[in-house]
Amino acid sequence: QVQLVESGGGLVQTGGSLRLSCAASGGTFSMYTMGWFRQAPGKEREIVAANSWSGLSSYADSVKGRFSVTRDNAKNTVYLQMNSLKPEDTAVYYCAANKRGGTGKYDYWGQGTQVTVSS
Questions:
Q1: What residues contact 12, with CB distance under 8 A and at least 6 apart?
Q2: Widest CA span of the chain, in angstroms?
Q3: Spatial contact of 36 and 20, defined as CB atoms under 8 Å apart
Q4: For 50-92, how does the pLDDT look when each residue is reduced to its tens digit (9 = 90+)?
Q5: What pLDDT is attached to residue 1?
Q6: How many Cβ atoms from other residues are within 10 Å of residue 83's Cβ?
Q7: Is the dihedral of CA 47, 97, 17, 41 positive or negative?
Q8: 6 in helix, strand or coil?
Q9: CB-based contacts of 10: which residues, under 8 Å, 6+ apart?
């Protein structure tokens, strides 16, 4: 069982930056693809970025060139660097874990951290 704890959210002005962190415990971190999702009020949850167990990164079109996902397997932590933030990036951000050779789904989720971008 993997436990995930996000941190780093907050209030930032348009054009600003934030770095989210997600600390994992209870599993072999390097065996997991780690995803960042977000959910804005009244909208469905969407995937923002992912970093696979092999180190490959992928991004939603809406954040390409602005967000960067990295991981530190020694610290069991995945990061989401968010630059050039826009009001439409306002949402609760969640990290999630998808185990290599598991269900193929993100089975483990953090509690979320609020990101608010003011215009």
A1: 18, 85, 115, 116, 117, 118
A2: 43
A3: yes
A4: 999 998 999 999 999 999 999 999 999 999 999 999 999 999 9
A5: 83
A6: 14
A7: positive
A8: strand
A9: 18, 114, 115, 116
